[in-house]
Amino acid sequence: MCRAFSIDLAPSAVSCEPSTWLLADGRTGILMRVSGPYRHGSAGRDDARVIRLRINEACELVAAAAFVVDARDLAYEWGDDLDFDPPDSSVWVLAVVRPEQVAAYAPIVGSKIVRTDLDAAFDEIERLALRGPANAPVPAAPAPPAKTYAWTEVWMNNGCALLLRGASDGSFDLCRVGERDTPPRSYASLEQAEAKLRFSGYQRVEGRLSLAS
Asked: Per-residue pLDDT tens for 131-142?
């Protein structure tokens, strides 16, 4: 005879209450209010599983563009398994906690999503969602403009030649002759660059050559 054992389908006292709101563009956001006692350490593993299950269920039922977790009434102190991320990485998420809870939550759920003001979190996540998906690639920063040079000088020390050049951005660059792939060493003033050269035993061997067109 097969012996059956009961399964506890409510292994946690944590409560999760989802609701929705409309973003400015008509898409839907989910608010998940999480409350109750979260047990310490590994004892809180079932609490974390219940929260994860409820988040996944809500996201399966509602195609959300934004997700806010209100955890101000969750009595969380420590435990490694807590996670507020929606299953879809394109959904923006923020977690609102009390100010005194930030130190406990930030290392676990991520300091980038932790906030302490619910109204401000709604405003912020609306702006983020209107900007595009959370997993959209970040555009590369524009390359800085290439330096141009007004003049150059040659300095020598025992057969080693350095170029001292006055740059368009007001800096003064030192580089070895023929080393095009090595970034130059820049100085904020001409006095600094010349002092470095003289300290290293270099002497100017040619007059200043103008590079202006």
From this structure: 889 888 877 778
